[in-house]
Amino acid sequence: MPAPAFDRAWFHRTFARLATGWYRTLRETSPSCAVWETPDGVKNPNFKSASGKQCDGVTRWMPALAAWAAQPANPATLELEDGAKLNVKQVLRDAFVHAFDPGHADFWGYGFPDTGNQRQVESSIVAWSLWLSRDWLLPTLDAQQRGNIQKWLASCTDYTDHYSNWSLFTATNHAARIALAEYGFSGDAEAIRRDLIIGDEVHIADGWLWDGKYHGIDYYNFWVWGSHHCYLRAMLPAYDSPMLDRALDRFEQRQRDLPLLIDGSGRNVLFGRSLPYRWGWLSGLVAAHYLGQGRATVGGGLTRAMLARNLQAWLDGGSLNEHGTLRERLSPNGSDGGRSAYINCGHPYWGMQAFLCLALDDAHPFWREPAAAPPIEKGFLEPRQGPGMVLQGIKDRGEVRLYNLRNTGGALYGKWVYSTAFPCASSTVKQLSVLDTQLALRLADGTLVGPREILEVDVNDGRTVHVTADYRAPDNTGAVVHTTLRIDEDGYTAEHFIRPRRNAEAPQGAQWVEGGFTLGVPPGTEPLVERHALAGLAEDPTRGLAVFSRALEGWTLMSPFAGTKDEAGLVSCEEPPHVIDGGCRHFLFAAPVSNAPVQLAARHLAGAKNGAPRKAFGEANQQWKAI
Q1: Fold match between 8-321+331-377 and 380-626?
Q2: CB 3.0 to 4.6 Å from 70: which of 62, 147, 359, 494, for a disulfide?
Q3: What angle in degrees, to the nearest 10, is found between the helix axes of 300-316 and 283-291?
């Protein structure tokens, strides 16, 4: 069967589907088109209008509406699924007129001069949308209305002490105002220069960046670190900046890894924060196509197919709630642990920046090239020393795994491996871990201590990889752990050589704890769980998935995790933690912390029911019977 074409008409229908619930909610919230909130959605206090209503649901749709209006071939009025008609330009104009009017009830309020604020984030895409709309919108605004916009945007650049991706929000804000000088706007080129410094500071290697220096490698590499650099160059094509040139060169390099993060079903690997942005991980790549100049290193046909497949996968997975708007959680059953604490009802629409493709004409390679298949159809194993990753595509199962060695942190950063077929567990908005595919030091009071610092990473050939980490308890006790992961298509073997810190007694009552792959368990599903001594198997008879874990050396206890805790009391959480299915099953191993060096090893598999996990469990049973 030939692959779907995913043509412009498909994207128009999908855009209309997403717009239906959003526009209904917009009209129900206020006639101003400046505020947006759902009745039962999360409402954070970090960006409210004078009327007390949320603003992010408007700002995050602005780039998509502006992209639609910027392409003359797109109809002026969009007919929605419920029969409503969305006049794109009118909605945008109303938002720009009312949101920045200090006398209006839905005025957005000014940025803070002495601290960072969500308005700074949103101002970047407001400024970008203003620039995209310049030809048709600005001639319709009077001097007072343009002055209101200028004053609000300028207020969002007063505070500048950002040393992360936030620097690009103020840089993009300034760039748009400089580019729109003929309409009375003004920005600061020197401020842009300073904001671009952080891009050099956080570069690791292989084109990848930290989110903030030495912390967090995630999809910000492909939205803010990718998209906003492209926005800067598009708005200021003559701006002379070696730092911006280097940033774009690095983005070209890491773009090549994007096709390695999507599986045969259109699902992307779930790791890092802001996961409710969903298909937003492709917004930077679409921005590179918009920019042109050879900056897109993934072909137009492949980019279009990836975006369409990913959009379809998210929508098929229940991303829209009963109001027809995007959920703050990833799915109807998923835990709140997939949602960073700052994400409110409007935040998931950050992904709408990927609809910049709607501004491209029919002759653009994005539309003209035939839809192409992603690399998973051939399979792959790609090590990346810079970010400390191994990207693995398992052809027979259409599954993609990301082995992750350099990150530290909670559930969405600190696991050994993330899988499209076996998403992770993350409990509550604090993203606490239940130790699936993770090693931790568990103190006597139940505190879990992850690595304080990654000392060395060696991704080698992608099959045998090494990482050295410093685990340190609050009283400065702990150990240096040398870990070797032996990776194959079924899973991995984790071997740890643990050397206690010099002259430090082992924490009293502490244990080393490690978990394996977790099996999602949707409501109403009862998995088959089998165990024998220090090995366990969990199978989903409905979806045909299974996970297996077996202790090989040093571990003294195995404890199955089910629901919200494991039977030995090693870890627990307040609600079922799986980010997609809610419930999950996996197996935990424990061993006492020693004052002497110790070696631990375990095998962890995930795959098809009656495949490698079942076979490995059967072999383990035979070995025990022979003893």
Answers
A1: no
A2: 359
A3: 150
pLDDT in tens, 274-285: 999 999 999 999
Alpha-helical runs (H) found in 538-583:
none
Domain layout of the chain by residue ranges: 8-321+331-377, 380-626
What are 260's two structure tokens?
């390695």
Contacts of 559 (CB under 8 A, 6+ apart): 566, 567, 568, 570, 587, 588, 589, 590
User: H-helix or E-strand containing 313?
Assistant: helix 300-316
C-alpha to C-alpha distance for 551 and 533, rounded to whole angstroms: 9
Residue 356: is it exposed, middle or buried by C-beta count within 10 angstroms (0-12/13-18/19+)? buried
More confident residue, 278 or 213: 278
| CA pseudo-torsion sign 41, 42, 43, 46 | negative
The answer to whether 303 and 296 have CB atoms below 8 angstroms apart is yes
Cα 515 → chain centroid: 23
Name 209's Cβ contacts closer than 8 Å, sequence gap at least 6.
199, 202, 203, 217, 220, 221, 225, 250
CB 177 within 8 A of CB 187: yes
Number of residues written out for the chain: 627
User: Closest Cα to residue 187, out of 173, 167, 166?
Assistant: 173
Q: How far is CA 317 from CA 80, 96, 115, 427, in A?
A: 21, 34, 38, 20
Confidence of residue 3 (pLDDT cuts 50, 70, 90): low
CA distance 121 to 429: 21
**How far apart are the C-alpha atoms of 486 and 507, rounded to whole Å?**
30
- How many CA within 13 A on the CB side of residue 624? 14
598-612 b/e (C-beta count within 10 Å ≥ 16 → b): bebbbbbbbbbbebb
537 touches 529 (CB < 8 A): yes
User: Could you read off the pLDDT of 8-54 as tens digits, one per residue?
Assistant: 999 999 999 999 999 999 999 999 999 999 999 999 999 999 999 99
Angle between helices 62-70 and 118-132 (to 10 degrees): 10
Amino acid at 599: Q
Q: Is the pLDDT of residue 521 over 60?
A: yes
pLDDT at 447: 93
pTM for this predicted structure: 0.97
> The domain 380-626 is classified under which CATH number: 2.70.98, 1.10.3470, 2.40.30, 2.40.50?
2.70.98
The one-character DSSP state at 474 is T
Residue 381 CA from chain centroid, whole number: 22
48-97 pLDDT per residue, tens:
999 999 999 999 999 999 999 999 999 999 999 999 999 999 999 999 99
Q: How far apart are CA 582 and CA 75, in angstroms?
A: 41
Residue 473 in contact with residue 441, Cβ under 8 Å? Answer: yes
Given a cut of 60, whether residue 546 has pLDDT beyond it is yes
Q: Check whether 627 has a pLDDT greater than 70.
A: no
Q: Which of 535, 546, 540 is nearest to 618 (CA)?
A: 535
Give me the pLDDT at residue 429, please. Answer: 87
Distance CA 224, CA 91 (A): 26
CA-nearest of 252, 280, 255, 286 to 268 is 280
What integer is the mean pLDDT of 243-249? 98
Residues 6+ away with beta carbon under 8 Å from 343: 42, 274, 276, 328
Q: Is it the case that residue 103 has pLDDT exceeding 70?
A: yes
pLDDT digits (tens, 9 = 90+) for 363-403: 999 999 999 999 999 999 999 999 999 999 999 999 999 99
